[in-house]
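Colleagues,

For the teaching module next term, I've prepared a clean inverse folding example: a structure given as tokens, and then the sequence designed for it. I'd like students to try predicting residues themselves before seeing the answer, so please don't circulate the second half yet.
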């Protein structure tokens, strides 16, 4: 998918020249199996690794997007999520942007931006008129991430026709014309608060020839008007897969009932286990531009042709997700701050709720108030990780989710085409620590990243884990 999720926080723009490294990867094409019409695929399709090149790249509050060779300095922590919802801003501000494009035809792309904006008292901006008077929107098109030549630019006037309210955020829709002789472009969108001059930025790679199904189709609400810029739906959600034109065609769907592993320790430098083959649990067909429901939980994969490698991946969850409420599910994410013995006891208990309570009370020396605050803080981050990083598995299980849960949102992000570096300041008596994520090809989603692990993280990681275990982190 072309989703560029998560956070774009307040950023002050200062342009600087950067160098870039190019990275190539090859992906093995999956062949359909001949057994009973089922389709088997690997859980994590691998590509050749490019050499690691440490170069300064743009800072972006949206860790799932990339941008041209410019540098941004941020005023607030980011990472991949909106700024802390408990904080109160002193002015109107953009706290997050999620972006997605769909090809209209070979000459234009339609852009959808989910914009999370806050009033000075910290409440979401839910008025189209309020947003239109408080913010200016413009964009610039670049040939690539390492090329500052401008291919085009434009201003977007927010009106009732192209801006709508969707829950706690706004959805802005506009079209971008293909620059002459360009088959694609990197679009940098800038949203400026008119009084303070503070800017929020989001970058999105546009492909006008739309080689993949996710360049042409995406998930919409049941009305077919509002895109759902995330990789999961609940069992009771009614959704539509559609393109800009509302074309009707059949898609082939495959359901996988598989429990994916959670991220391993940042210090675990052992080779990753070989990609496993996922057996198809069931198959189905859906018709684009027609509403449907998926009543069974699991991972779904939709293709235009059964011989295709890449398609639309979608997780179907329970109705409370991204929040976790079932005791048997609550015990699993604490693995990031627990010993193997503790996890064996939690997973082996016949009463998950009792074991969960005993675990937290034991860590907090029986102090129920401290335990409640620690649980609330930890699982708020789990919920945010699920909301922001869910791909073909729950967000808390991803490498980004693990880092986000334990350390919180990074203070800034350095980005290139296939790499993100999350930078944390002043953690565990260390002035600065970096976590590098490399993008890896994946059949289900475009935004699958893997952490580069180092044993040297140990003296930083363990003190923060200990802070969780003693109740020192409560927000």
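(Answer key — instructors only)
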């Amino acid at each position: 998918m072309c989703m560029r999720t998560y956070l774009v926080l307040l950023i002050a723009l200062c342009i600087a020249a950067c160098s870039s490294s190019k990275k190539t990867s090859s992906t093995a094409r999956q062949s359909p199996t001949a057994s009973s019409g089922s389709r088997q695929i690997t859980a994590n399709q691998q590509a050749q690794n490019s050499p690691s090149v440490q170069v300064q790249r743009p800072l972006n509050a949206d860790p799932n997007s990339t941008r041209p060779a410019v540098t941004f300095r941020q005023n607030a922590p980011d990472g991949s999520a909106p700024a802390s919802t408990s904080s109160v801003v002193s002015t109107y501000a953009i706290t997050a942007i999620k972006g997605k494009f769909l090809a209209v035809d070979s000459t234009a792309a339609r852009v959808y931006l989910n914009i999370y904006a806050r009033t000075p008292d910290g409440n979401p901006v839910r008025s189209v008129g309020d947003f239109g008077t408080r913010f200016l929107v413009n964009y610039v098109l670049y040939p690539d991430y390492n090329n500052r030549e401008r291919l085009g630019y434009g201003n977007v006037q927010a009106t009732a026709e192209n801006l709508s309210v969707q829950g706690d955020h706004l959805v802005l829709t506009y079209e971008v014309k293909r620059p002459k002789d360009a088959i694609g472009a990197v679009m940098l969108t800038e949203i400026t608060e008119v009084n303070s001059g503070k800017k929020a930025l989001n970058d999105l790679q546009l492909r006008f020839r739309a080689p993949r199904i996710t360049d042409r189709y995406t998930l919409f609400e049941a009305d077919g008007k509002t895109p759902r810029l995330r990789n999961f739906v609940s069992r009771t959600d009614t959704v539509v897969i559609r393109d800009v034109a509302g074309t009707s065609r059949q898609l082939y769907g495959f359901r996988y009932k598989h429990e994916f592993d959670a991220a391993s320790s940042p210090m675990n430098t052992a080779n990753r286990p070989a990609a496993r083959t996922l057996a198809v649990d069931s198959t189905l067909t859906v018709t684009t531009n027609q509403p449907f429901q998926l009543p069974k939980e699991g991972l779904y994969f939709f293709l235009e042709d059964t011989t295709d490698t890449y398609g639309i991946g979608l997780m179907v969850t329970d109705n409370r997700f991204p929040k976790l409420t079932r005791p048997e599910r609550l015990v699993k994410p604490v693995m990031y701050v627990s010993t193997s013995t503790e996890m064996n006891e939690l997973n082996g208990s016949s009463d998950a709720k009792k074991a969960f309570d005993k675990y937290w009370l034991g860590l907090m020396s029986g102090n129920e108030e401290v335990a409640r605050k620690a649980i609330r803080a930890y699982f708020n981050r789990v919920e945010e990780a699920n909301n922001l990083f869910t791909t073909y598995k729950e967000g808390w299980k991803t490498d980004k989710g693990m880092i986000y849960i334990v350390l919180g949102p990074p203070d800034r992000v350095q980005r290139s085409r296939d790499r993100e570096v999350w930078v944390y300041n002043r953690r565990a008596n260390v002035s600065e620590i970096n976590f590098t994520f490399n993008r890896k090809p994946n059949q289900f989603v475009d935004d699958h990243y893997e952490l580069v692990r180092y044993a040297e993280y140990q003296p930083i990681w363990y003190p923060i884990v200990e802070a969780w275990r003693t109740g020192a982190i409560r927000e």
